């Protein structure tokens, strides 16, 4: 059975499919000793695939839920020597990578896995996976600001999908508010930029939920393996959303 080269790399746990495509284009991948830079090349288990001279091996699929603390980079490696989310997974021997990202100064729920198929599906905008954040913002929101967030904000010429917004608490004397927002995309600095666009700059940000998963039982810096029913639930969610997209 054959599959696309970038998918084979992702399924081997080397990188996400998107990153695998970049590795291929940059000439880091060989198939049967020949460098491949074109997309769409089909490979089989009998083909010898190497990334930077390291042969692909099929790892057991693993899934982790991390409570990312602030001041940690959401990447597997950092050329500036900063602590990464992978550094926090002590004892994990598989090559895992984060599903999406969280800002350096943000905290909260982050998934890491070597399952390229699941990671690629969760990050694809068509599936509209719910991501719920809690933000501490400067100012006290008024109805018009909340409505703009709910309807979507134009960022770099593109409008965000409608969001769910809930004011948790306001502190008139200190002029700040705690607001919960649920979005579907994962654009760069998206939540901060959305709040800034309506005049409510973010002081502090945390992702509290991802799909049906939350941070129950974890403190900042801690992680746990996903349970079998949770992994199955994520795949079921993608299948359901995929059917909605197709229809």
Automatic annotation (TrEMBL):
Q: Which InterPro entries match?
A: PsdUridine_s_RsuA/RluB/E/F_cat (IPR042092), PsdUridine_synth_cat_dom_sf (IPR020103), PsdUridine_synth_RsuA/RluA (IPR006145), PsdUridine_synth_RsuA/RluB/E/F (IPR000748), PsdUridine_synth_RsuA/RluB_CS (IPR018496), RsuA_PseudoU_synthase (IPR050343), S4_RNA-bd (IPR002942), S4_RNA-bd_sf (IPR036986)
What EC number(s) does this enzyme carry?
5.4.99.-
Spell out the GO cellular component terms annotated for this protein, sorted alphabetically and separated by semicolons.
cytosol
Indicate whether S-adenosyl-L-methionine appears among the record's keywords: no
What keywords appear on the UniProt entry? Isomerase, RNA-binding
Q: Which domain of life is it from?
A: Bacteria
The record ties this protein, via SMART domains, to: S4
Report domain RNA-binding S4 positions: 3-71
Asked if the Swiss-Prot or TrEMBL record annotates the protein with the keyword RNA-binding, the reply is: yes
Q: Name one GO biological process term.
A: enzyme-directed rRNA pseudouridine synthesis
Quote the Pfam families the UniProt record gives.
Answer: PseudoU_synth_2 (PF00849), S4 (PF01479)
Q: Which GO terms describe its molecular function?
A: RNA binding; rRNA pseudouridine synthase activity
SUPFAM superfamilies assigned? Alpha-L RNA-binding motif, Pseudouridine synthase
NCBIfam families attached here?
A: pseudouridine synthase
Q: What's this protein's family per the entry?
A: Belongs to the pseudouridine synthase RsuA family.
Name of protein: Pseudouridine synthase
Species for this entry: Schleiferilactobacillus shenzhenensis LY-73
Phylogenetic placement of the source organism: Bacteria, Bacillati, Bacillota, Bacilli, Lactobacillales
């Amino acid at each position: 059975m054959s599959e696309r080269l970038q998918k084979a790399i992702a399924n081997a746990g080397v990188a996400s499919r998107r990153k695998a495509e970049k590795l291929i284009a940059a000439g880091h991948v060989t198939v049967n000793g020949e460098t491949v830079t074109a997309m769409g090349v089909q490979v089989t288990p009998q083909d010898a695939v190497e990334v930077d001279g390291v042969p692909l091996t099929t790892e057991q699929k693993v899934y982790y839920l991390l409570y990312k603390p602030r001041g940690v980079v959401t990447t597997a490696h950092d050329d500036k020597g900063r602590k990464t989310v992978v550094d926090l997974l002590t004892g994990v021997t598989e090559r895992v990578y984060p599903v999406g990202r969280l800002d350096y100064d943000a905290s909260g729920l982050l998934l890491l896995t070597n399952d390229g198929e699941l990671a690629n599906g969760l990050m694809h905008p068509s599936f509209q996976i719910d991501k719920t954040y809690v933000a501490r913002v400067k100012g006290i929101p008024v109805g018009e600001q909340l409505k703009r967030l709910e309807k979507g904000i134009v960022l770099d010429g593109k409008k965000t999908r409608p969001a769910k917004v809930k004011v948790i608490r306001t502190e008139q004397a200190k002029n700040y508010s705690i607001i919960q927002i649920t979005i579907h995309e994962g654009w760069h600095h998206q939540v901060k930029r959305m709040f800034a666009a309506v005049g409510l700059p973010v002081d502090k940000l945390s992702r509290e939920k991802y799909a049906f998963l939350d941070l129950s039982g974890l403190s900042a810096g801690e992680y746990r393996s996903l349970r079998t029913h949770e992994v199955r639930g994520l795949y079921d969610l993608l299948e359901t959303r995929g059917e909605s997209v197709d229809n």
